[in-house]
Design goal:
The protein is an alpha+beta fold. The protein is built from 4 helices and 8 strands; from the N terminus they run αββββαββαββα.
């Protein structure tokens, strides 16, 4: 039987193929199959495309954003707050279901970027916090994902 996560991805994945795919469970019924994301992944800076069309973290060291780079990001994205080495923003929605729908969009974008924010959900509010723990500070991948998350609200 296919996993709940696999069925969820098949139902929500924005890059699903048009070819019908199914998984047969032990009773012979069929369930939608999640697309092979190795074929549909999009690489962003900080990621390297492999021969299988799978994006993996780049092996080059990522540098912490300079004060000028942080200021430039903040000037174009003023609703994001800088809290030490973390970018934070709270989004407010009409109700819990809208907030959870937004969180799902964030989850899919984060998976594609191989970078995962801290997310706090409080009924109709979603707080997102981004930092690069592996390098101990704020990097371009945080700024890029913050901009991508911001674009999901439109």
């Amino acid at each position: 039987m296919p996993s709940l996560a696999r069925t969820f991805l098949a139902a929500t994945w924005p890059l699903a193929t048009t070819t019908p795919h199914t998984d047969n469970d032990s009773r012979g019924s069929t369930q939608p199959k999640a697309p092979d994301i190795r074929q549909s992944a999009v690489c962003h800076s900080g990621l390297t495309r492999t021969t299988e069309l799978w994006c993996v973290p780049d092996s080059r060291p990522m540098s912490i954003l300079s004060r000028a780079e942080r200021d430039r990001f903040r000037s174009t994205h003023p609703e994001w707050q800088l809290d030490g080495e973390t970018l934070r923003r709270t989004f407010t929605f009409g109700d819990f279901v809208e907030a959870m729908g937004f969180v799902t969009k964030i989850a899919l974008a984060a998976e594609k970027a191989f970078h995962h924010p801290d997310i706090d959900i409080r009924w109709n509010r979603v707080e997102v916090a981004l930092t690069s723990h592996d390098v101990g500070g704020l990097t371009s991948r945080d700024a890029e994902l913050a901009a991508r998350i911001e674009s999901l609200t439109g």
